[in-house]
Amino acid sequence: MACGGFVCSKNALCALNILYALVSLLMIAVAAWGKWFGLVSSFQVIAAVIGVGFFLFIVAVVGLCGALKHHQVFLFFYMVILFMVFIVQFSVSCACLAINQDQQKLLLEIGWNKSESMQQDLERTLNCCDFSEVNYNGTCEADFNIIYFSSLQGCFSERNCDPCSVKIQAYADDTLHFVGGMSLFFSFTEILGVWLTYRYRNQRDPHTSAGQFSN
User: Which of 33, 59, 78, 211 is the most core-located residue (most Cβ within 10 A)?
Assistant: First the structure.
């Protein structure tokens, strides 16, 4: 059968949803791995990643069931949800690609102030202290990571730490462009999924009679 018929649309839709399911399971596994090995201690970050992964998995399962059974209701709701996800993801990806340095710093500072556990993770990972200005009269997690892996003292003990905002922004621009680009790519796979679903819903199943088919 020519590609563009019922079977081809069904197989393409199934393959797309299998891809979504694999991506969602990978997100959940990475979040669980990060928590298990103590790489990320922030419960909010872990919960957010697992929540997004679980939501994507449910959407993929609905799409896969609708594709396999040619179920009109499943396919309709899958198409609507996928289009809404496309709008949100496309908007976020454009924002990531368009954000400037001042906006980056403002957003990073807001995120920094919201989670003490995330502050500690970043201080240990990046070997930095505080956000904008280092306070040597306070405490810092930077030395704990260094002392754990070697006998050398960290930057806080030697009083030569950089503020975390300096190190975060060194990575933030490249990270935002990478995330924005990847998000933009996947948003186009979602609009492809919407188009495939719309087309597949209105195709006749060759295994059913004409009288059983309805739009």
Answer: 78
